[in-house]
Amino acid sequence: MEILQQNLDITSVDGQMQENLSQTVAKPLSTFGTALLLSRYWYIGMGTDILGFRITDRVLHSGLVGIMSFFESTLRQYLLPNVIGSKLANFTIDMSSPFVIGTSSLLLNEALSFYYYGIPTTTSEMFYSFSFGFVSEIIGKWLYDNVIKKVTNSMLV
């Protein structure tokens, strides 16, 4: 009986590990894909030279949203549950992650404007870049919760 109980414990830990890995990888990918689709209608597509490479603002801002979503997911899965507890960490990050991604998008836009033109962005441009990150994170999280999570869970079981 003890051996059966140990096998069940290992399975439940392994399932939690797969869930954490799925959330850390699949959620940022869904947010990045959403940002890439939204950027087609959101940004003009002006090119920028970064380290000798020509990159459009669509790819740049979508990439930032994907990277920040990855860092946020990693923080959520591996650091915060050990610091403040898993229930409080999940609730806190679910409520604050769109604001974090929106603010990081705003800060990137501000930094690029200041670096290339030497002037700060206007208030409307700041709201524009914040709302791009905010909306991308909300739609990406919804897509992950309602589509990708169900598909990956059915594939893993």
**Biggest sheet, open or closed, and with what strands and sense?**
2 strands, antiparallel
Number of strands: 2
Which residues form runs of ≥5 with pLDDT under 50? 1-13
**Whole-number count of domains:** 1
Summarize the amount of helix as a percent range.
over 70%
Beta-strand portion reads 5-15%
- The string of secondary-structure elements, in order, is HEEHHH
Distance from first to last alpha carbon: 24 Å
Q: Number of helical runs?
A: 4
pLDDT averaged over residues: 76
Instruction: Please list the strands of the largest sheet in the order they lie side by side.
Output: 1-2
What radius of gyration results from the CA coordinates? 19 Å
Shape: globular
By secondary-structure content and strand pairing, the structural class works out as mainly alpha
Question: Could you characterize what this model shows?
Answer:
This protein is mainly alpha-helical and 157 residues long. It has helices at residues 2-42, 57-84, 86-117, 123-156; strands at residues 47-50, 53-56. A two-stranded antiparallel sheet has the order 1-2.
